[in-house]
Amino acid sequence: MEQRTLIERLARHLAAGAPDDWPDRVEDAASLLAILKEPDAAMCEAGDADAWRAMIDAALRERWAVAPASGGDDATPGGFDEEGEIRLSRDAVTDRRANWVHTKGETSR
């Protein structure tokens, strides 16, 4: 059996009624993963919360590899944060935790 990434497996599951349309569900899968990124109290008790967050980050970065942007234009593939409010480009997702924090405006001190 072919080994598929977590995000592709989730997208395929979400597209169960239309299996050929799974690439259209990758962003939905990414949204679910983003929600799961912060472990709850029971999860923290069971294991390493930092390792969990790192694994979710790694799974989220796979979204651009499993379903590249279509349409043939030069648009940067991307997605949105878990609330669907802030657009994330491929470059916005790195191993650095601070890169996941986005503000709507700058404040001066």
Terminal CA distance: 56 Å
Report the β-strand fraction as a percent range.
Answer: 5-15%
**Secondary structure tally, helices:** 5
Structural class: mainly alpha
Return the average pLDDT rounded to an integer. Answer: 77
- Inertia-based shape: elongated
Largest sheet: 2 strands, antiparallel
- Spatially, the strands of the biggest sheet line up as 1-2
Beta-strand segment tally: 2
Question: What are the secondary-structure elements, in order, as H or E?
Answer: HHHHHEE
Low-confidence stretches: 71-77
- What percentage of residues falls in helices of 4 or more residues? 25-40%
Q: Output the radius of gyration.
A: 15 Å
